[in-house]
Amino acid sequence: MDEIYKDKYLHKAEVLIEALPYIQKFNRKVIVVKYGGSAMADEELKRNVIKDVTLLKLVGFKPIVVHGGGKDISNWVKKVGKEAQFINGLRVTDDETMEIAEMVLSKVNKSLVTMVEELGVHGIGISGKDGGLFKVEKKYSDGQDIGYVGEITSVNTKVLEDLLEKDFLPIVAPIGLDENFVTYNINADDAACAIAKAMGADKLAFLTDIEGVYKDPKDPSTFISRLTVSEANEMVEKGYIGGGMLPKLKNCTDAIEAGVNRVHILDGRKMHSLLLEVFTNKGIGTMFFADDEKENLP
User: Fold this and answer.
1) Alpha carbon distance 127, 113 (integer Å)
2) Among 172, 188, 170, 183, which Cα is nearest to 70's?
3) What is the pTM of this model?
4) Mean predicted confidence (pLDDT) in 56-78
5) Rounded CA gap, 146 and 87, in Å?
6) Which residues contact 60 (CB under 8 A, 6 or more apart)?
7) E strands within 128-212?
8) Residue 212: its pLDDT value, please?
9) Residue 11: exposed, middle, or buried by beta-carbon count in 10 A (0-12, 13-18, 19+)?
10) 125 with 137: CB under 8 angstroms?
């Protein structure tokens, strides 16, 4: 019995003790979680991500979830006989594709709300159109017209602040309106970054299909668990970062420079990666922070 106690129960107590200072430190702090990638395609992973987010809320955080839906949108585009097109990682969005995107994102949004409600937490699903949450302007990709893709120009934080104050867990679909009330699709990473900056979030976490940042993606030994803004910019300048990681890295550094305390890139395919990053000393992904904090980290 003593061995069973030591191996099973004592370990659980040690995990809780390790998490305690983080629970105290981030109590009542805003954490923005961008949820997308393969973790949305697997029902078990999806439920575990939502469990993680609801746990964060129940221990005192103020989580805001921003979700994507790219794979589902592409599947529906294919069903209507169209071919999904991307330019520099951004979906080319014509009238029909915009209609499909809004339909799919609404469906995803409400499915996540249902999961949150099943766990005993009050979730509320909104899009960037609700309450004028996102004001956008047309976005171009290297000067190319990519249709109804929006660049966020402002975030109406009162919408989110009111929901958090009333003890709701906001779940946001990345759609917005321009000054003429035309609907635009928004990259979910950009939407999460804009919310984190506008809300003065303490943390911004990107759940992705990668474990974090590598100096050489083909060499697992080059994984980097911590990066300052300057170090991240240097990696870009030296050509270590390319493709789809470039805009993600820019969102990370922009958020830090705008006052977000910590930004994390995590592998959403790994069960409970969000909790492991937030509540353990070692963490599991890549954490970004300001240059002047490097000496203060343990």
Assistant:
1) 13
2) 188
3) 0.88
4) 89
5) 8
6) 23, 26, 27, 28
7) 134-141, 144-155, 169-173, 175-177, 183-185, 203-208
8) 84
9) exposed
10) no
